[in-house]
Amino acid sequence: MTKRQLGLTFIVLGSLGIVGLFGIDLLGAGQFNGIGPTQRLGLLAAGAVILVGLTLLPLGDKPA
Fold it and tell me: Rounded distance, CA 49 to CA 54, Å?
């Protein structure tokens, strides 16, 4: 697995995490109207995973 593939994997996983968090909000599976504190932490974590993935993309075909 190269660093570019690992970066793309992180970006996809972070994006799926964000979509999942908003999907939970659409289902109404929480006590808060809108985005609750736990969802905010999840969004921050997913954003951090995406940022790590973006930093790995320019490293190219080096082994991970």
Answer: 9
- Check residue 30 and give its pLDDT: 63
Question: In DSSP terms, which residues pair with 63 in a beta bridge?
Answer: 2
What is d(CA 36, CA 47) in angstroms, rounded to the nearest whole number?
A: 16
Sites in the chain below the pLDDT cut of 50: none
pLDDT of residue 34: 73
| Domain range annotation of the chain | 3-59
In order, the DSSP letters of the chain are -BHHHHHHHHHHHHHHHHHHHHHHHHHT-SSSSSS-HHHHHHHHHHHHHHHHHHHHGGGTTSB-
